[in-house]
Write a structure and sequence with these properties.
Layout: H1 2-29, E1 33-34, E2 41-42, H2 61-66, E3 73-81, E4 88-95, E5 98-105, E6 108-115, E7 118-123, E8 128-131, H3 136-139, H4 144-147, H5 149-152, E9 161-167, E10 170-179, E11 182-189, E12 194-201, E13 204-214
């Protein structure tokens, strides 16, 4: 499980690098739009227009990203990329301020819960839980990819290409950019849940995609599933 944590942390760096490379190139090529006043300029909107590949009615990416940390989410993600030996999965339960992650790797599952002011680590093999002295965010730094707006803020820019796709059986709005040898894409479903993140930069790539996503998290989902020792 340790190697999986390290790989996911590297993925966070890859994603950030790709987003910043694309954003930097957009800043170089996008000119501000003049208003009726010769002394006033307006920054381009982050909501894609028809000329950007969107339909002009796409949700604001700024809003979607800023709301990531406030959403109630139950979603299972697969992730793969450079350095991985195969496809791995994790399930996120988030009902702010409480959250849980079931992380599966190599046929075993570890469960991390932060609820009611207490953090737990549970082992699927021994079917026991223990109180963790380390906060969930420190144990799983990659959790920021799906719960922290700051971790995704590098993807917010202007002139992003917009498309619609079906992901996890649901409609999703996707925003992508390609520049300076880097590509990035983020997709959100109609409930504002992140359902895909892809980044590629410097010969490394990372893809995380939901196989299921809902806005329902029960009290039982946030309770330790095994006795606490």
């Amino acid at each position: 499980m340790k190697n999986l944590h390290i790989w996911l942390l590297v993925a966070l760096v890859i994603a950030g690098g790709a987003f910043m490379a694309c954003k930097s190139d957009k800043k170089k090529t996008t000119e501000p739009t003049a208003t009726a006043s010769a002394d006033t300029t307006m920054e381009p909107s982050d909501t894609p227009s028809a000329s950007d590949g969107g339909n002009g009615d796409a949700p604001s990416l700024d809003d979607l990203v800023s709301n990531v940390g406030s959403k109630t989410v139950k979603a299972t993600y697969t992730f793969s990329g450079t350095g991985a030996t195969g496809e791995e999965t994790f399930t996120l339960y988030s009902r702010p301020p409480d959250s849980r992650v079931d992380l599966t790797s190599g046929g075993s599952t570890s469960i991390f819960i932060s609820a009611g002011g207490t953090d737990y680590i549970c082992d699927d093999g021994s079917q026991t839980c223990s109180v963790s002295p380390i906060p969930l965010g420190s144990t799983l730094p990659f959790l920021a990819l799906v719960t922290d707006p700051q971790a995704l803020s590098g993807a917010v820019g202007s002139d992003l290409d917009h498309s619609t796709e079906t992901i996890a059986g649901q409609d999703a709005d996707c925003y992508s950019a390609s520049a300076a040898g880097a590509t990035s894409e983020v997709c959100f479903n109609d409930d504002g849940i992140l359902v895909r993140l892809h980044a590629s930069v410097g010969g490394s790539d990372f893809t995380m995609e939901a196989t299921s996503a809902s806005s329902t998290v029960s009290d039982a989902d946030l309770e330790p599933p095994y006795p606490v020792e």
